[in-house]
Amino acid sequence: MQCVKVLGGVLGAAALLGLGIILGHFAIPKGTDLPAPSASASQDLDLEILEAVMGQLDADRIRENLRELSKEPHLATSPRDEVLVQLLLRRWQDPESGLDSAGTSEYEVLLSFPSQKQPNRVDVVGPAGGILFSSQRSEENLTGEQGDPNVVPPYAAYAPPGTPQGLLVYANRGSEEDFMELYQQGIKLQDSIVLTRYGGVGRRAKAVNAAKYGVSGVLVYTDPADINDGKSLPNETFPHSWGLPPSGVERGSYFEYFGDPLTPYLPANPSSFRLDSDNASGFPPIPTQPIGFKDAEVLLCNLQGASAPAAWQGALGCDYKLGPGFRSDGIFPAGSQVNVSVYNRLELRNSSNVLGIIRGAVEPDRYVLYGNHRDSWVHGAVDPSSGTAVLLELSRVLGTLLKKGTWRPRRSIVFASWGAEEFGLIGSTEFTEESFSKLQERAVAYINVDISVFANATLRAQGTPPVQSVIFSAAKQIRAPGPSSLSIYDNWIRYSNRSSPVYGLVPSLGTLGAGSDYAPFIHFLGISSMDIAYTYDRGKTSARIYPTYHTAFDTFDYVDKFVDPGFSSHQAVARTVGSVLLRLSDSLFLPLNVSDYSETLRSLLQAAQQDLGGLLEQHNISLGPLVTAVEKFEEAATVLGQHISALQKGTPDPLQVRMLNDQLMLLERTFLNSRAFPEERYYSHVLWAPRTGSVATFPGLSNACSKAMNTGPRSAAWAEVQRQLSILVVALEGAAATLRPVADLW
Amino acid sequence: MQCVKVLGGVLGAAALLGLGIILGHFAIPKGTDLPAPSASASQDLDLEILEAVMGQLDADRIRENLRELSKEPHLATSPRDEVLVQLLLRRWQDPESGLDSAGTSEYEVLLSFPSQKQPNRVDVVGPAGGILFSSQRSEENLTGEQGDPNVVPPYAAYAPPGTPQGLLVYANRGSEEDFMELYQQGIKLQDSIVLTRYGGVGRRAKAVNAAKYGVSGVLVYTDPADINDGKSLPNETFPHSWGLPPSGVERGSYFEYFGDPLTPYLPANPSSFRLDSDNASGFPPIPTQPIGFKDAEVLLCNLQGASAPAAWQGALGCDYKLGPGFRSDGIFPAGSQVNVSVYNRLELRNSSNVLGIIRGAVEPDRYVLYGNHRDSWVHGAVDPSSGTAVLLELSRVLGTLLKKGTWRPRRSIVFASWGAEEFGLIGSTEFTEESFSKLQERAVAYINVDISVFANATLRAQGTPPVQSVIFSAAKQIRAPGPSSLSIYDNWIRYSNRSSPVYGLVPSLGTLGAGSDYAPFIHFLGISSMDIAYTYDRGKTSARIYPTYHTAFDTFDYVDKFVDPGFSSHQAVARTVGSVLLRLSDSLFLPLNVSDYSETLRSLLQAAQQDLGGLLEQHNISLGPLVTAVEKFEEAATVLGQHISALQKGTPDPLQVRMLNDQLMLLERTFLNSRAFPEERYYSHVLWAPRTGSVATFPGLSNACSKAMNTGPRSAAWAEVQRQLSILVVALEGAAATLRPVADLW
């Protein structure tokens, strides 16, 4: 999982509820003979098959998958990564439990690695030039796995090489506001080294913001306050708990975009046009290196200067000062500097995707895709193997039904194991670039399960509105793991909910950012997408993410002992995803409830009216056309819903159903505009592009208003507001047109 | 018709052939009862219906349509244009012969008109400042129609206002080469007025090229050598023949792009974001005015200086000199200058499209579109009313069958009457911008018939390869007009043919430029498109286009007497288009022969290999991946063709046919890449974008090679060659993927 902010957005109130319905009596023994599949045009979801699949998804097998997948470090393109490619291929080609076909596709992509000969290092250099302190080059070997020679030392992928040296300054999270604060306090930043902590802003942003102030090098660490609920002692952390050990270091990609850096919009085939790496953009501007909090403590707790603001303080057990430089009564002599030596290098490497297909019986040209990445930073038990372990179990169960001749889905199912996600969703992005047309024509939905289990409290799902209903349907019919007898749905609603004007209280579906491989599918291709996992009780931890994220402590034992003992949460995710996948691939009518977009559009519109209406009015910009467009969408969606209900009551003609399903499938595509955000690579979806503006409304409008706000009335920035508004109106009108009766006059 | 070069490209050898097969016994009387339509999923083309339609298409009714349509000038957005909107609506809403529904859509678009108060003028000003000669402000009233107060005086639409004055220089066609020649001959161009003749390069290009040399004003005329086969006397021209009278002036749009100039990529709705007209691009840089050859003769035959090169000479009966300025022994005193006074102004106007729909019985969500523009420069009998007269007759015949309950097509048919085409394909472009998603999802093909009859010799068709076969099928079954008993196809092959590696000798299908409303459909949306007309015997005339093009002499009588007496060519076009339309809308299997793209790709590839291979090799750029991609396409197309043949022999499942038809329909879309040509507005089709490079191969590659040729090996221009090659390879691989079996593994 490539992650800036995994959490946030979906955390609602957790309310104690009464008993839910007891569901999910998955008692059908393996091997039960089910009726042979019929390939009639009216083939619909078979609840017996669904129940069989639910029953056959096996927690122990998921556990064994995970053990195998996380046995060794499998950094993208490493030998072990290739071993896992073969493992996936073997599984998907198994004559008893495999798919119709499986294969690999390879791309030549630009990755970044630390030098083996010259390890990256962080030193404190005394006034006389002697090295007074050096950061740990690797994590402590607490469980044996950390000593594996294939553990990649901590580094900031794509950070440029360099050996800057200067006085140390503490810069909190390295946000624009943080540097502004330092600047206003008169802290000299020019030629300094800044120490920042993970969180708040993206990895690369810390270096970008720093470089604007003349900073020459950046350190990044994880504060125990942000990851361990404050705990920092060795005996409070892994292997004694799930906490991050003091030597643990979060690796990560510091690349701004996603996809191969040298081949934007083109698949990274060997013959493809490549930018010179000098012309590639999106890398951090200055050397950057992550360190553990044990090392950070030594640096931070010896700083001089004013105390950092209260919000900047952490859990390292000292008062965090700002610097610059170390205090004279600390362990380093006054004038000591910090040297950051980064020897990362860029390398073209071959990275593989593995793809497996179950051919649809009735509509083989409609694809339901389900994928996860394969590469990890180290052993990657949670990230991404917890997802792949589920993927393999689900493909085994479905493959077995297939090979027995018991079942063949109505539509085709595509399983995918993406390469090089950790470097920036590279495998999945190259795939979407290569298969752009085919996917735009035929993809029904993309399901992503990266980290399948963060923790055992509740389901967490992110997606665009049309997938809400199918996830809810699945979640209602599966029992939540653990002692409660609630359904996953009823458990979920206790942890995270919202009040829907249409449905009343429902679980909160989160929105899709760019944290995993769904990003190119939704943002670049406009394919309805979702990401599913089991996650925390936010009443019990405020950790940014699970503590050993991207460290050498994310191992099988970590999962087995602390994350999901018994693997019942893994099983719950497998069932949820299995049910969603079967519903999407087998239902006669696609279970994409497009009218759920009405609620989203109305709420984005209301935010625009409330928080931007006055400002826009002052500039003679009317929201009227946007209001009309939203109304048109709502009306078209309502009428279409009625049409579907009517059809479902009769015995609809297969072509009628196909036409209707095409409307449902293609709706998400209508929100794409490749010219809407020329500065945003791949982002074309006018509803889900990144929002930097302060108002939580349509991103193009919000961002443009933020930029225009302090400009004159005839500025280019105000013209851009109007352009964004028009782009939005055209997209919504186009979406409504796609939903209206297909022979309606223009 | 908005036209730079209407002819060219499709002119093959005309060979005398023996007798063809006698076809087209269209003897079914009007009103014959045909069987009632069956809306079964297997509904296929009904040859009886086809024959009935052929028989009912009536030359006299086309003639009456034309008389009504061309009765008065109907410049875009003029009151008469609105009258015709109502006429079309009435016809399409007629209870006996109308369509299922009809309506209008209005756009607020930027047009350019001459001032009524201050007429544009071209004067010769003597050394003392007196006006010695003035050009005609309007065409001579030879037949009564030219005196209509609604005749718009000749002007260059979108040329900026201004009153430049200077010595006159003759600049041939105003091409880059022409100005280079003048420059090399030492002719002073700075502050001059240049006289150019139509043809060779686009209208605006003359002004753009001139402005680069400091020219301050441009005159454009039509030389009798280029339009009248040399004839220039009043009694040799209309109304005595079809020739252009000496006072005739070609009007036209001098706008570079197509679509509304202020709303690129957005529909020009009243609320849409608009560029400031100062920020709009694509207008001519300097005042420009067209004049007749009678006026041009006075100017040109009095020039002094060296004789123009032989290729620059025309048919005005004097030796064309270059200038600058007039010869002292001519009718103007030495030092006389030419003053060009242009008072054009830009205006936002409401322009309407009229749309009519016949709802498909089986697949209402598949659209076959058939359109033409409605607006003319003056009476517009040939351009565009000859096309609209055919459109109305075909919609009447089909509407009558529909209203009688005799027939309903399998797919929906959309009839369109576009507004403001003459200003730059504005109505059709705005339509494609507004309906982008719906059309991309559902449009099967776009048929354009603008000028339906240029002359009576032969069919002329332009289109992308998949439409070749359906046009051939139609043309083979209809008798050519005139005394011969050949089919349209057999007649066509005599005038224009090529040797196909697959089929042997076949008529030449021309390629689509941007001369009429098909442009946004093919270039922007990737919808297989075609343009159909009857045209000249190139052995009999070398006219650039029909002589009264865009003048006040393009009247009903002109057509009735000279272009198509008896209207049998109009009828032939109506039958051809009717047959194509019915085949596309009614055939169970879409009659789009995608494998005809193989031949095109192979020939473009061969040109690249032959004419660029060496150059590319020198720069270490391999055509290998392109060769492979073309081979993959060929193979996929062949296999798909076999699959179709096999299916056609059995009784295929309706869903199977639908899936296959989706492949055929969507193939053209796979060639789009919105990022391929960032400097070309709307052009996204990687095979049919404008080619400026000298090698007749894939346009992106050809253009990039032309630019790179004289740059260093590591230039950005060579990187662009590689980028274009990759874009092409990805598109072709994507196209092949769309044609391959739909459940094939990636």
Automatic annotation (TrEMBL), chains A, B:
<dbReference type="GO" id="GO:0004177">
    <property type="term" value="F:aminopeptidase activity"/>
</dbReference>
<dbReference type="GO" id="GO:0004180">
    <property type="term" value="F:carboxypeptidase activity"/>
</dbReference>
<dbReference type="InterPro" id="IPR036757">
    <property type="entry name" value="TFR-like_dimer_dom_sf"/>
</dbReference>
<keyword id="KW-1003">Cell membrane</keyword>
<keyword id="KW-0325">Glycoprotein</keyword>
<keyword id="KW-0479">Metal-binding</keyword>
<comment type="subunit">
    <text>Homodimer.</text>
</comment>
<keyword id="KW-1015">Disulfide bond</keyword>
<keyword id="KW-0378">Hydrolase</keyword>
<keyword id="KW-0106">Calcium</keyword>
<keyword id="KW-0031">Aminopeptidase</keyword>
<dbReference type="GO" id="GO:0043171">
    <property type="term" value="P:peptide catabolic process"/>
</dbReference>
<keyword id="KW-1133">Transmembrane helix</keyword>
<keyword id="KW-0862">Zinc</keyword>
<dbReference type="GO" id="GO:0006508">
    <property type="term" value="P:proteolysis"/>
</dbReference>
<comment type="similarity">
    <text>Belongs to the peptidase M28 family. M28B subfamily.</text>
</comment>
<protein>
    <recommendedName>
        <fullName>Aminopeptidase NAALADL1</fullName>
    </recommendedName>
</protein>
<keyword id="KW-0472">Membrane</keyword>
<feature type="domain" description="Peptidase M28">
    <location>
        <begin position="353"/>
        <end position="561"/>
    </location>
</feature>
<dbReference type="InterPro" id="IPR007484">
    <property type="entry name" value="Peptidase_M28"/>
</dbReference>
<keyword id="KW-0482">Metalloprotease</keyword>
<dbReference type="GO" id="GO:0042803">
    <property type="term" value="F:protein homodimerization activity"/>
</dbReference>
<feature type="domain" description="PA">
    <location>
        <begin position="167"/>
        <end position="252"/>
    </location>
</feature>
<dbReference type="GO" id="GO:0008237">
    <property type="term" value="F:metallopeptidase activity"/>
</dbReference>
<keyword id="KW-0735">Signal-anchor</keyword>
<dbReference type="Pfam" id="PF04253">
    <property type="entry name" value="TFR_dimer"/>
</dbReference>
<dbReference type="InterPro" id="IPR046450">
    <property type="entry name" value="PA_dom_sf"/>
</dbReference>
<dbReference type="InterPro" id="IPR039373">
    <property type="entry name" value="Peptidase_M28B"/>
</dbReference>
<keyword id="KW-0645">Protease</keyword>
<dbReference type="InterPro" id="IPR003137">
    <property type="entry name" value="PA_domain"/>
</dbReference>
<dbReference type="Pfam" id="PF02225">
    <property type="entry name" value="PA"/>
</dbReference>
<dbReference type="GO" id="GO:0016324">
    <property type="term" value="C:apical plasma membrane"/>
</dbReference>
<feature type="domain" description="Transferrin receptor-like dimerisation">
    <location>
        <begin position="621"/>
        <end position="740"/>
    </location>
</feature>
<feature type="transmembrane region" description="Helical">
    <location>
        <begin position="7"/>
        <end position="28"/>
    </location>
</feature>
<comment type="function">
    <text>Aminopeptidase with broad substrate specificity. Has lower activity with substrates that have Asp or Glu in the P2' position, or Pro in the P3' position. Lacks activity with substrates that have both Pro in the P3' position and Asp or Glu in the P2' position. Lacks carboxypeptidase activity. Lacks dipeptidyl-peptidase IV type activity.</text>
</comment>
<dbReference type="GO" id="GO:0008270">
    <property type="term" value="F:zinc ion binding"/>
</dbReference>
<dbReference type="GO" id="GO:0005509">
    <property type="term" value="F:calcium ion binding"/>
</dbReference>
<dbReference type="Pfam" id="PF04389">
    <property type="entry name" value="Peptidase_M28"/>
</dbReference>
<keyword id="KW-0812">Transmembrane</keyword>
<dbReference type="InterPro" id="IPR007365">
    <property type="entry name" value="TFR-like_dimer_dom"/>
</dbReference>
